[in-house]
Amino acid sequence: MIKAAVDGLQHLDRLLPAVHALGHRHAGYGVREAHRATVGAALLRTLERGLGNAFSADLRDAWTTVYGALAAAMQQGARTDPTAPPLAAAA
Q1: Is pTM, for the whole model, over 0.90?
Q2: How many Å apart are CA 54 and CA 49, to the nearest integer?
């Protein structure tokens, strides 16, 4: 899903509804807001270990920003009807 999300960053109009629906499904699995930081830290650590010296501060910042935006959209989806238009798309 992370790859699909990153690939979809150029098409937020199509990506956000999918991410909102994913967040709605995750809420049904018991995923809570408190899990967001743990998953984000694990993602960054995995990238750091996998990329080694190529994992620069700029790359860390970019992944932190992307993960934060995707996690926020999932959290929004967890609180809403997945068939409703995303709030970010209306802005």
Answers
A1: no
A2: 10
